[in-house]
Fold this protein.
Amino acid sequence: MTIQDIWQCFNMGEATLNTNGEPTGMKPPLCLVEQYLKANWRKGPNERKAWERFREIPEFIDGAVTQRGRTPSEAVKELEMLRVEPGKHNLLGTSALVAKLKENRRQAAKNSSIPTPPSSSPPPTSPPHSSSAPTAPLTTSPSSINKRRAPAYGARPRAKRAKTS
Protein backbone atom coordinates (compact mmCIF):
# COMPACT_ATOMS: atom_id res chain seq x y z
CA MET A 1 0.00 0.00 0.00
CA THR A 2 1.20 3.49 -0.78
CA ILE A 3 0.88 6.40 1.63
CA GLN A 4 -1.97 7.78 -0.48
CA ASP A 5 -3.78 4.40 -0.33
CA ILE A 6 -3.45 4.30 3.46
CA TRP A 7 -4.84 7.83 3.78
CA GLN A 8 -7.76 7.08 1.45
CA CYS A 9 -8.58 3.85 3.30
CA PHE A 10 -8.55 5.71 6.62
CA ASN A 11 -10.35 8.85 5.48
CA MET A 12 -12.69 7.81 2.62
CA GLY A 13 -12.91 4.02 2.69
CA GLU A 14 -11.82 1.26 0.36
CA ALA A 15 -13.54 0.13 -2.82
CA THR A 16 -15.02 -3.37 -2.96
CA LEU A 17 -14.42 -5.22 -6.20
CA ASN A 18 -16.31 -8.04 -7.91
CA THR A 19 -14.65 -11.09 -9.49
CA ASN A 20 -13.88 -9.10 -12.67
CA GLY A 21 -12.07 -6.41 -10.68
CA GLU A 22 -14.76 -3.79 -11.19
CA PRO A 23 -15.69 -1.55 -8.25
CA THR A 24 -19.10 -2.43 -6.81
CA GLY A 25 -19.21 -0.42 -3.57
CA MET A 26 -17.24 1.22 -0.80
CA LYS A 27 -16.22 0.00 2.63
CA PRO A 28 -16.64 2.54 5.43
CA PRO A 29 -13.62 4.69 6.33
CA LEU A 30 -11.56 3.22 9.14
CA CYS A 31 -11.73 6.46 11.12
CA LEU A 32 -15.52 5.99 11.36
CA VAL A 33 -15.15 2.29 12.19
CA GLU A 34 -12.77 3.21 15.02
CA GLN A 35 -15.03 6.02 16.21
CA TYR A 36 -18.13 3.81 16.26
CA LEU A 37 -16.75 0.46 17.47
CA LYS A 38 -13.78 1.74 19.53
CA ALA A 39 -11.46 -1.23 20.21
CA ASN A 40 -14.17 -3.90 19.81
CA TRP A 41 -13.35 -4.60 16.16
CA ARG A 42 -9.72 -5.54 16.83
CA LYS A 43 -9.62 -8.10 19.61
CA GLY A 44 -6.41 -10.09 19.20
CA PRO A 45 -2.85 -8.90 19.81
CA ASN A 46 -1.92 -9.20 16.12
CA GLU A 47 -4.86 -7.02 15.08
CA ARG A 48 -4.02 -4.45 17.75
CA LYS A 49 -0.38 -4.24 16.66
CA ALA A 50 -1.36 -3.98 12.99
CA TRP A 51 -3.77 -1.13 13.84
CA GLU A 52 -1.09 0.62 15.90
CA ARG A 53 1.27 0.53 12.91
CA PHE A 54 -1.42 1.49 10.40
CA ARG A 55 -2.78 4.41 12.37
CA GLU A 56 0.56 6.20 12.76
CA ILE A 57 0.52 7.41 9.14
CA PRO A 58 -3.04 8.84 9.12
CA GLU A 59 -2.39 10.52 12.47
CA PHE A 60 0.71 12.20 11.04
CA ILE A 61 -1.30 13.45 8.06
CA ASP A 62 -4.17 14.60 10.27
CA GLY A 63 -1.73 16.37 12.60
CA ALA A 64 -0.06 18.11 9.66
CA VAL A 65 -3.46 19.34 8.49
CA THR A 66 -4.75 20.53 11.87
CA GLN A 67 -1.57 21.76 13.57
CA ARG A 68 0.59 22.99 10.72
CA GLY A 69 -2.12 24.09 8.28
CA ARG A 70 -1.05 21.84 5.42
CA THR A 71 -3.25 20.07 2.92
CA PRO A 72 -3.46 16.27 3.02
CA SER A 73 -1.67 16.03 -0.33
CA GLU A 74 1.24 18.12 1.03
CA ALA A 75 1.44 15.86 4.09
CA VAL A 76 1.44 12.76 1.87
CA LYS A 77 4.29 14.26 -0.19
CA GLU A 78 6.20 15.00 3.03
CA LEU A 79 5.82 11.36 4.10
CA GLU A 80 6.96 10.19 0.68
CA MET A 81 10.08 12.34 1.12
CA LEU A 82 10.67 10.71 4.54
CA ARG A 83 10.66 7.32 2.84
CA VAL A 84 13.75 8.22 0.80
CA GLU A 85 16.97 7.12 2.47
CA PRO A 86 20.19 8.76 1.25
CA GLY A 87 22.46 6.31 -0.53
CA LYS A 88 19.72 3.70 -1.06
CA HIS A 89 17.79 2.99 -4.25
CA ASN A 90 14.67 1.55 -2.62
CA LEU A 91 12.17 3.48 -0.56
CA LEU A 92 11.48 2.62 3.09
CA GLY A 93 8.54 0.29 3.61
CA THR A 94 5.55 1.34 5.64
CA SER A 95 6.78 -0.48 8.78
CA ALA A 96 10.15 1.29 8.64
CA LEU A 97 8.40 4.60 7.95
CA VAL A 98 6.15 4.10 10.98
CA ALA A 99 9.20 3.35 13.14
CA LYS A 100 10.85 6.54 11.84
CA LEU A 101 7.71 8.58 12.58
CA LYS A 102 7.53 7.18 16.12
CA GLU A 103 11.18 8.00 16.75
CA ASN A 104 10.72 11.54 15.38
CA ARG A 105 7.66 12.02 17.62
CA ARG A 106 9.55 10.77 20.69
CA GLN A 107 12.52 13.03 19.96
CA ALA A 108 10.24 16.05 19.50
CA ALA A 109 8.47 15.29 22.79
CA LYS A 110 11.76 14.78 24.58
CA ASN A 111 13.14 18.06 23.21
CA SER A 112 10.00 19.97 24.13
CA SER A 113 10.02 18.63 27.70
CA ILE A 114 13.55 19.91 28.42
CA PRO A 115 13.15 22.83 30.81
CA THR A 116 14.23 26.19 29.45
CA PRO A 117 16.54 28.40 31.54
CA PRO A 118 14.74 31.13 33.48
CA SER A 119 14.61 34.47 31.71
CA SER A 120 15.88 37.70 33.25
CA SER A 121 12.46 39.35 32.96
CA PRO A 122 10.36 39.65 36.12
CA PRO A 123 7.61 37.08 36.67
CA PRO A 124 4.13 38.06 35.51
CA THR A 125 1.96 39.61 38.16
CA SER A 126 -1.33 38.01 39.05
CA PRO A 127 -4.50 40.06 38.61
CA PRO A 128 -5.72 41.77 41.79
CA HIS A 129 -8.43 39.93 43.65
CA SER A 130 -11.66 41.63 44.48
CA SER A 131 -11.95 42.28 48.20
CA SER A 132 -15.73 41.83 48.14
CA ALA A 133 -15.50 38.14 47.26
CA PRO A 134 -14.88 35.88 50.25
CA THR A 135 -11.87 33.62 49.99
CA ALA A 136 -12.23 29.94 50.76
CA PRO A 137 -9.63 28.27 52.97
CA LEU A 138 -7.25 25.94 51.13
CA THR A 139 -7.76 22.43 52.40
CA THR A 140 -6.70 19.19 50.84
CA SER A 141 -8.27 15.90 51.56
CA PRO A 142 -6.61 12.58 50.74
CA SER A 143 -9.23 11.91 48.07
CA SER A 144 -8.49 15.16 46.22
CA ILE A 145 -4.73 14.61 45.95
CA ASN A 146 -3.73 13.28 42.55
CA LYS A 147 -0.60 11.28 41.95
CA ARG A 148 2.14 13.13 40.17
CA ARG A 149 3.22 11.52 36.95
CA ALA A 150 6.17 12.21 34.74
CA PRO A 151 5.28 13.47 31.27
CA ALA A 152 5.15 10.76 28.63
CA TYR A 153 7.74 11.01 25.89
CA GLY A 154 6.12 10.98 22.46
CA ALA A 155 2.71 9.98 23.72
CA ARG A 156 -0.06 9.78 21.16
CA PRO A 157 -2.98 12.10 21.91
CA ARG A 158 -6.07 10.25 23.04
CA ALA A 159 -9.02 10.14 20.69
CA LYS A 160 -12.03 12.13 21.74
CA ARG A 161 -14.93 9.94 22.80
CA ALA A 162 -18.30 10.68 21.32
CA LYS A 163 -21.28 10.55 23.64
CA THR A 164 -23.61 7.74 22.60
CA SER A 165 -26.66 8.58 24.67
